[in-house]
Amino acid sequence: MTTAPVGSVLIVGAGLLGASIGLCLRNLGVETWLRDASPTAEAVGEDIGAGLSERAWVGQMPEPQLVVVATPPDVTVSLVVAALEEFPGAVVTDVASVKGAILRGLEATGADLTRYVGSHPMAGREKSGPVAARGELFTSMPWVLCSSEQTAPSARRLVKALAVELGATVTEMSADEHDTTVALISHLPQVMSSLLASRLQDTPLHHLALSGQGLRDTTRIAGSDPGLWVQILTANAASIVPALHGVQEDLQRLISTLEAPTAPGSRLDVAQLIAEGNAGQARIPGKHGGAPKAFAQLTVLVDDVPGTIAHLLTFIGEIGINLEDLRLDHSPGQPVGLAEVSVEPNRREELVEALTTNGWKVVQ
Amino acid sequence: MTTAPVGSVLIVGAGLLGASIGLCLRNLGVETWLRDASPTAEAVGEDIGAGLSERAWVGQMPEPQLVVVATPPDVTVSLVVAALEEFPGAVVTDVASVKGAILRGLEATGADLTRYVGSHPMAGREKSGPVAARGELFTSMPWVLCSSEQTAPSARRLVKALAVELGATVTEMSADEHDTTVALISHLPQVMSSLLASRLQDTPLHHLALSGQGLRDTTRIAGSDPGLWVQILTANAASIVPALHGVQEDLQRLISTLEAPTAPGSRLDVAQLIAEGNAGQARIPGKHGGAPKAFAQLTVLVDDVPGTIAHLLTFIGEIGINLEDLRLDHSPGQPVGLAEVSVEPNRREELVEALTTNGWKVVQ
């Protein structure tokens, strides 16, 4: 991997992403400056150590080598253009989670895009603002780099160096390929989860009390922020709509089938939908980006008191078996937990044997 | 709770659910017999200790007090009717996951339904057959009991006693109320997950490599068995179709909005969909069937080696903080894990402080 060292950086927008980038760069000893439309956010950013406030140190900021525009997407284009004009020697990147609309907006301005590279750091958290910033927000997370045909190789290398220094895993693709990808792997799951969860608005609570892990898993991301998702979904509408049409066709076919469930072929139609879901689900890569891989599960009954899960995992670790995943299942109405442990399939039998021999209750 | 003791039981169908019920009853000292259309399944059921094979002990089975029909739903009605006729003193229950169609099928036969009670034990696992049976399959899981207007109180009490002795948490409702409930909390999530995952069938693997926990969560149940779900979805079509129409209307509204994303009001429409999802998701009860409750999350960077998670949880337990949930996040391309720990909100700050002081890397 060829990367150039990152020199001085100006971060425009001291929110969660901007301040997190600043925190990390400061820890690495990079000269970092902050600019925000809100004087308060800019000052808080300096206070938490995310960079120097441009307002507080008037006239002292050198021309930056790199400008990171980390603002809401609806002002990204104008701020990227402004940065390219203000700092004729600087490379400029942005962190918006939709890239095609930004690139087309920039091209329409006639700006010099040899010094622009789009970024999408695929990291975040449920809170926003500089106070929520964390220097390790990007550690091990994907960072998509979208160069365009105009982008100079040196600009691409500099932004790639930024992502690498922040600890992210870099993937490069065009802006349109990026938008098609996130439409399917991120935006469509959000829409489906919201559509599902919105059906529960009038469901009696004693019915919802029977909910299992399936409902909890499929609706978890339905708790996301409407303000953020309005910007994402409208900005990437062109890539999302074809996927939604596909869902709509499958859904219409399923409804027609279930409205005449005893008609010839109806069982085959339903089985096909579920089988197609099997096929799609099986293609999602496993842990650490490896090939899709099925782990073996076993479920252990655990008391819901501090330390019980730790004892269980200590025991598993002592046998030398690596825990691939762990889920705590929720038991309606009982102070007892079910821990679903995932391990390499060829270690499952050994683990069940060892757990049972040592007094653990293996349920499944 | 008024329950009657369970005497001798005949289980018809030695699959996962039947054999699991048998294993548990035998552990409790209840006389249990097995009957299966497959001589092999019946014999395997006896071998694993789930009950005595009726074929192996010809003429020795006494008239059972309770018959549990644990077969695929498409033969449940005829086997319940046969059991009511063969054993005029016995109470009969079934375990099909859809109850209205079964009840209407039984009523159409004119059978004596004073001795019939429908059951839906909401437990299962990814494997099937008697070998997959576990005596503790029902521990702490919901068991819905569906009496009808014809059901005698003594029959209801006996089946309730069965569920209680198996360790399940009993909820009582009518067959139609049950079917409406599971349509929303179980069948609709399955359909939405399958519809979403089926969109991934042609997605390039290097795009899917960018998948995060959101996609993994929303598609996990899309891996379910088509054969089983054909029976469930077609049997409960009447309750599922109205929910699917609701999804279809919301989806159509979203598509129209996103096809003209700059039209007046479009941002409001999208925000409303996400907000409605927020509202529905917030109504799903939390752990142990309590009121919906938001836990505070923090994410800790952990090495992916045996014992690391155990050390982390031991440390948390030693501070006296109860672990409410734990998720291991998958880091594409790196042998490092992110453990998302959920705790009571008022303990989060203390825990972050303690972890950081002791050398753990708290990422978020």
Automatic annotation (TrEMBL), chains A, B:
Prephenate/arogenate dehydrogenase domain boundaries: 7-292
Membrane-crossing segments per the record: 6-25
GO biological process: tyrosine biosynthetic process
EC main group: oxidoreductase
Recorded superkingdom: Bacteria
One Pfam family per UniProt: PDH_N
EC number per UniProt: 1.3.1.12
Keywords: Amino-acid biosynthesis, Aromatic amino acid biosynthesis, Membrane, NAD, Oxidoreductase, Transmembrane, Transmembrane helix, Tyrosine biosynthesis
Gene Ontology molecular function: any one: prephenate dehydrogenase (NADP+) activity
InterPro entries with a match to the protein in the record: 6-PGluconate_DH-like_C_sf (IPR008927), ACT-like_dom_sf (IPR045865), ACT_dom (IPR002912), NAD(P)-bd_dom_sf (IPR036291), PDH_C (IPR046825), PDH_N (IPR046826), Preph/Arog_dehydrog (IPR050812), Prephen_DH (IPR003099)
Metabolic or biological pathway: Amino-acid biosynthesis; L-tyrosine biosynthesis; (4-hydroxyphenyl)pyruvate from prephenate (NAD(+) route): step 1/1
Family the UniProt entry places it in: Belongs to the prephenate/arogenate dehydrogenase family.
Protein name (database record): Prephenate dehydrogenase
Species assigned in the record: Kocuria subflava
